[in-house]
Automatic annotation (TrEMBL):
Official protein name in the record: Solute carrier family 22 member 3
CDD domains: MFS_SLC22A1_2_3
Catalytic activity: histamine(out) = histamine(in); guanidine(out) = guanidine(in); (R)-noradrenaline(out) = (R)-noradrenaline(in); agmatine(out) = agmatine(in)
Lineage: Eukaryota, Metazoa, Chordata, Craniata, Vertebrata
Domain Major facilitator superfamily (MFS) profile: 96-516
Organism of this sequence: Stercorarius parasiticus
NCBIfam families given in the database record: 2A0119
Entry's Gene Ontology molecular function annotations: monoamine transmembrane transporter activity; neurotransmitter transmembrane transporter activity; quaternary ammonium group transmembrane transporter activity
A Gene Ontology term for the protein's cellular component: mitochondrial membrane
BP GO terms, sorted: dopamine transport; histamine transport; monoatomic ion transport; norepinephrine transport; serotonin transport
Length: 530
């Protein structure tokens, strides 16, 4: 009986059928990147806001004040009397009623005594010039509540982490395409609920669920694509990453054109419903079907692939070799039971953690620098394109391991140099930091490919999901690590990123080279990799 790879060669390893499926599933990368980075635009700082004095709303209506006039009457005296107060997080500890003069509401306190009036912290009386422009103004995530914006991104990453475990397991047990379609439906529905959340608690719950399903779409589409092409074409996994980068570049355009955060949230969520149409055009992974003892279905799909590719399967292909390994429900012990699997798993988990922590840290660090948010974000996405092109040029010529190690080491050294470059040479500091971003982007994209190639079919989706869950742990830690350490010394996070990346670069050199090798079908196949 022929093996699956032999049948795939005759049906076409990357023919018209695979190219169509590949292009369709690549669109998932665009929508996933929208979800991944959307907090930058959903949580933009409101342009101008201040704390309203109790009774000011009614008095403003009675006196016919504009918002600017009300601000002048309440905030300006506060700034004049208490130079240290901006009127954003505290207010004068007074209350206005109908007896207050419209012309000079603070006259009763005397002109000279405003500075001596007690101040009160603001709790929920904020006024925004653009009330629905972001979740910050929608849910009052300012002043003492500002940390809740970081929480919203940590909750999304927690959703990614949960999705990696639960949906990664489900895709190995119930099938790739079923979990992919259910995940697309989940992302769309949760995205709509997030857009119309009546309070911040509901927002967080469904943002978490959107993270769970979002991770399901991304991981399963990646595995499906990798399992239906030949070993020489597996670098197309890197091209999927280019669609992620394309999404990063499109997102600031959407945010620039759509004025409200609800509009942005709907614009990035609704496209997921279109992916439900893939039910009719994207088949189940035949590799997965074989591991679940469904050889007839797998063969039927292979005949269909051959037909679309203009090929013809030989009549003696009436059955395909099925792995002798008993199909069991995967567990973490399966990933660490044997020496080579154990080494691969531990190194890959660390590589995922480092890639995510350094990548997200460098992206968020750009936000601290300031400037034009839309343009800066677009440029930071454009920087990632050369990373994918460099991988495509090197990975089939010199293998996976060397570019993987070097890209991490380059990122680490670039972070270290950036930390100690003087502020008065901004162009050099930006250039070296960009080199670090390029290096860690390469490492982030290679780890996907290497992870898939180092696990057997029976454990592949579970293994990738489990290892990549460390990426989500890195994503949860990144915002807190960056902002807390930057408060001590602005460049301190770069020192931490540098150490993590260089250690990672040295560790990944211990992994086996997988260039040109068929995807392993069993744990024994993995153990034989040297």
């Amino acid at each position: 009986m022929p093996s699956f790879d032999e049948v795939l060669k005759e049906a076409g390893e990357f023919g018209r059928f695979q190219k169509r499926v590949f292009f369709l599933l690549c669109q998932t990368g665009v929508t996933f990147s929208f979800l991944f980075a959307s907090v930058v635009f959903l949580g933009q700082a409101p342009g101008s806001y201040w704390c309203r004095i109790p009774g000011a709303a009614e008095l403003s209506e009675q006196c016919g004040w504009s918002l600017e006039e009300e601000q002048n009457f309440t905030v300006l005296p506060l700034r004049l009397g208490n130079g240290s107060s901006s009127g954003e997080c505290e207010r004068l500890d007074v209350a206005w009623d109908a007896s207050v003069s419209c012309a000079s509401p603070l006259a009763r306190y005397g002109n000279g005594s405003v500075g001596n009036l007690p101040l009160a912290p603001c709790h929920d009386n904020w006024v925004y010039k653009q009330p629905h422009s972001s979740i910050v103004s929608e849910y009052n995530l300012v002043c003492g509540n500002a940390w809740m914006l970081d929480l919203s991104q940590a909750i999304l990453n927690l959703g990614f982490l949960t999705g990696a475990f639960t949906l990664g397991y489900a895709a190995d047990r119930y099938g790739r395409i079923l979990i992919y379609l259910l995940s697309c439906l989940g992302v769309g529905i949760c995205g709509i609920i997030v857009a119309f959340a009546p309070n911040f608690t509901v927002f967080l719950i469904f943002r978490f669920l959107q993270g769970v399903f979002g991770k399901g779409t991304w991981m399963t589409c990646y595995v499906i694509v990798t399992e239906i092409v030949g070993s020489d074409q597996r670098i197309i996994g890197i091209v999927i990453q280019m669609f992620f980068t394309l999404g990063i570049m499109i997102l600031p355009g959407i945010a620039y054109l759509v004025p409200t955060w609800q509009g942005i949230q709907l614009a990035i969520s609704l496209p997921n419903f279109l992916f439900l149409l893939y039910y009719w055009v994207v088949p189940e992974s035949p590799r997965w079907l074989l591991t679940r003892k469904k050889g007839e279905k797998a063969l039927k799909i292979m005949h269909n692939i051959a037909k679309h590719n203009g090929k013809y399967l030989s009549p003696h292909y009436s059955e395909i070799t099925i792995s002798n390994e008993e199909v069991s429900n995967p567990s973490f012990l399966d990933l660490v039971r044997t020496p080579q699997m154990r080494k691969n798993t531990l190194i890959l988990m660390y590589a995922w953690f480092t890639s995510a922590l350094v990548y997200q840290g460098l992206v968020m660090r750009l936000g601290i620098v300031g400037g034009n948010l839309y343009l800066d974000f677009f440029i930071s996405g454009a920087v990632e394109l050369p990373a994918a092109l460099l991988i495509l040029v090197t990975i089939d010529r010199i293998g996976r391991r060397l570019p993987f190690g070097i890209s991490n080491i380059v990122a680490g050294i670039a972070c270290l140099i950036t930390a100690f470059l003087p502020e008065d040479i901004p162009w050099l500091k930006t250039t070296v930091a960009t080199l670090g971003r390029l290096g860690i982007t390469m490492a982030f994209e290679i780890v996907y490919l290497v992870n898939i190639e180092l696990y057997p079919t029976t454990l592949r989706n579970f293994g990738v999901s489990l290892c990549s869950s460390l990426c989500d742990l890195g994503g949860i830690i990144a915002p807190f690590l960056l902002f807390r350490l930057a408060a001590v010394w602005l460049e301190l996070p770069l020192i931490i990123f540098s150490i993590l990346a260089v250690v990672c670069g040295l560790l990944v050199l211990l992994l086996p080279e997988t260039k040109g090798i068929s995807l392993p079908e069993t744990v024994e196949d993995v153990e034989q990799l040297s």
